[in-house]
Amino acid sequence: xxxxxxxxxxxxxxxxxxxxxxxxxxxxxxxxxxxxxxxxxxxxxxxxxxxxxxxxxxxxxxxxxxxxxxxxxxxxxxxxxxxxxxxxxxxxxxxxxxxxxxxxxxxxxxxxxxxxxxxxxxxxxxxxxxxxxxxxxxxx
Amino acid sequence: xxxxxxxxxxxxxxxxxxxxxxxxxxxxxxxxxxxxxxxxxxxxxxxxxxxxxxxxxxxxxxxxxxxxxxxxxxxxxxxxxxxxxxxxxxxxxxxxxxxxxxxxxxxxxxxxxxxxxxxxxxxxxxxxxxxxxxxxxxxxxxxxxxxxxxxxxxxxxxxxxxxxxxxxxxxxxxxxxxxxxxxxxxxxxxxxxxxxxxxxxxxxxxxxxxxxxxxxxxxxxxxxxxxxxxxxxxxxxxxxxxxx
Lengths: 140, 244
Hints:
Chain A has 140 residues and is of the alpha+beta class. In chain A, 22% of the residues lie in helices and 19% in strands. Helix content of chain B is 32%, strand content 22%.
């Protein structure tokens, strides 16, 4: 499962085709600082056909939640919110009992099975989907 | 604790009204039910779900009585009657009811819910628990709290994730509905402020109106199988734009 996540959530390589939403953040994307979990797979090129299957997500931290060094990710449309939560928790090295919530519009938590592709259709703008994430001790 | 994280009853009712307005627009069937004296009330939604189950029958557990039969023989015992059929799909309709009430003591909304089959048989806490999304099972079972009533889960069911460690409070528990006086399951409200505070603080920072009920329900609802359609997320912003 972890391996699958790592290959899904990869930064688009610099100069990737179809990256109209990416140019303004290229300084960030061309010099990534991968975490020790190596979520970025080096040398894995994203085939041109697949760029349409991935959407760009910009992750923003809310409250006291740690900020991710890498904020912009290309994610498969079919990735669920729960999958994204699991990934961020790993990336931030949260313990299992810490909850992580993801919001659209900074106020609404999509259900865990919601696909990011759908969220992008509804809430995306400027070629990306902005998601806020927040750590909480609720229920933990 | 910041005062703003709690909401008064009037505010609660206001947010519920806004929520229901949108529900009516999209046909989501939430409605307001006033209490008998109309001084307060709650939001309510009923929905029906068809559950497909496979009915498994274990040949060894049939009425043959001889417990020392070797395994091969047990499985070879033929029978044409339905109790030995391995899988049969049976559809069951389950009626789910979700109620959003205001808790005066915690000054936050609380989610009450219950589920029953069409013949009136209620689902047990264990049945409900089985419907909880996997990701929440992990969350709810970890941490200093304990979530599951000992009576229900002390039976040796063989599922390690259901083992009960009883220390402290329950998060998902049975309680009498304050207005209807009937037993419902409840998500304990005491941690509500923990997850609502960052949203509210952030909304003040960016000067954006947030419907407390919408945000809150989007977080707690999925724990018990209630998923809000995405259009609720846009409803507040629409209202803001319309009023400008």
